[in-house]
Design goal:
single chain; alpha/beta; three-stranded antiparallel sheet; 17 helices; binds pyridoxal-5'-phosphate
Length: 424
């Protein structure tokens, strides 16, 4: 067996909020489009028309999952494109309004765009969250003004799984005629979404979070809402997104949407039960740890747990030796010790900020995999705590800072991220 194959078969994949495995049915559905039906769906001849029919079916499947009309669906390349297209379109349709409201815990696809928009002269309000990651709707109400063009709020947070009250936010902003964009990249297939009864004007999803391949997404734009395309060129997607359609991936997304609808109940029963088993198992066998986020109002597949006195990335490195994939929930891309902006916004103590791990399950997660994690985690945490320079510190922040400034971090901690990548 090759090394790559061994890695694949021995892997326990609990990082499904980062990306998901392509469902076998999805692969099967898209294969003929790669192999046989390679025509351009815009071509006049029937070899192209045949391909266009596949695109039509996929659009209907995605619309069906969202309770939308097929004409309201635009295929994109990813969630980030959808977020950028929606926000830019909302602003372009109201050139006299220069205020945007979003939250401090959005994905960088929204946050970094908002920072860019500030440089372009827009005013942005970043709503705060409390210790459980929840918004204060009074803060939202107080920040509304006649100049507000758009509110952009995620349906579910990628790091904690926290759900935001989209319907209630919609009721507040719709009274003022403000456009409403939601990033539903983590929520689609896991929480009920019905655009026919929703106040949402723009909704974004991404294929690779729901068992379709990377490089495909969709943007819902409510009928009647003015839309100016981000990508200009040909007439594809009814003039709303230029570029020859990525037909195999569009077909894959359609199939994934159909499967997501079929498996919706399972996400909320079997996957939730496994997540709860994992979480309760960890909390009951490992001292000094806590769940980050709201215990109930969150995605059924996600748990984010803070393990005090150790660095999350040191845990990840140890888990990797057992073939277990999770995430530190950290937004940092370098090996600086900058913790997650989401956990920081929640005002969590220093030791939790640095010692947090996100496990995200999927319908392919098995009970045996969860039991394996429960078996290996307690000794990993115990071992790392034994060598931790700030264990038992009265003032955790001081302990951490002392360790960082005097470079006392054990090799597995300060070096962890670099090492994790190097060892692959
Ligand atoms: N929004 C959220 C909440 C996400 O979790 C992600 C990806 O992690 C994105 C947007 C970006 O999606 P994509 O990777 O398809 O660009």
């Amino acid at each position: 067996m090759t090394n790559d194959k061994r890695l694949m078969t021995n892997t326990i994949y609990l990082d499904n909020n980062a990306t998901t495995r392509v469902a076998p049915e999805v692969l099967e559905a898209m294969s003929p489009l790669l192999r046989d039906y390679y025509g351009n769906p815009s071509s006049m001849y029937s070899f192209g028309g045949q391909v266009a029919r596949y695109v039509k079916t996929a659009r209907e499947q995605v619309a069906d999952l969202l309770g939308a009309d097929p004409t309201e669906i635009i295929f994109t390349s990813c969630g980030s494109e959808g977020d950028n297209a929606a926000i830019r379109a909302a602003l372009a349709s109201q050139p006299n309004k220069r205020h945007i409201i979003t939250t401090q815990v959005e994905h960088p696809a929204v946050l970094n765009l908002c920072k860019r928009l500030e440089k372009e002269g827009y005013r942005v309000t970043y709503l705060s969250v409390n210790g459980k990651g929840q918004l204060d709707l009074n803060e939202l109400k107080a920040s509304l003004s006649d100049d507000t063009a758009l509110i952009s709020v995620m349906v579910a947070n990628n790091e904690t799984g926290n759900l935001f009250p989209i319907e209630r936010i919609g009721q507040i902003v719709k009274k003022r005629g403000i456009l409403f964009h939601v990033d539903a990249v983590q929520a689609v297939g896991k929480v009920p979404l019905n655009m026919r009864e929703s106040p949402v004007d723009f909704l974004v999803l991404s294929g690779h979070k729901l068992h379709a391949p990377k490089g495909i997404g969709a943007l819902y734009v409510r009928k009647g809402v003015r839309f100016r395309p981000l990508i200009v060129g040909g007439h594809q997607e009814r003039g709303r997104r230029a570029g020859t359609e990525n037909v195999p991936s569009i077909v894959a997304l359609g199939k994934a949407a159909e499967l997501a609808k079929r498996h919706f109940g399972e996400e909320n029963t079997r996957v939730r039960t496994l997540r709860d088993r994992l979480e309760q198992g960890l909390l009951s066998t490992i001292p000094h740890c806590q769940v980050n986020g709201h215990p109930a109002l969150r995605l059924p597949n996600t748990t984010n747990i803070g393990f005090k006195y150790i660095e999350g990335e040191a845990i990840l490195l140890s888990l990797d030796r057992y073939g277990i994939c999770a995430s530190s929930g950290s937004a940092c891309t370098s090996d600086s010790l900058e913790p997650s902006h989401v956990l920081q916004a929640m005002g969590l103590p220093y030791s939790i900020l640095h010692g947090s791990i996100r496990f995200s399950l999927s319908r392919y997660t098995t009970e045996a995999e969860v039991e394996r994690v429960l078996e290996v985690m307690p000794p990993i945490v115990e071992k790392l705590r034994a060598i931790s320079p700030f264990k038992g510190e009265e003032d955790e922040t001081q302990g951490w800072l002392k360790a960082v400034s005097s470079q006392q971090l054990p090799v597995t901690q300060g070096e962890s991220k670099k090492q994790l990548v190097a060892e692959r």
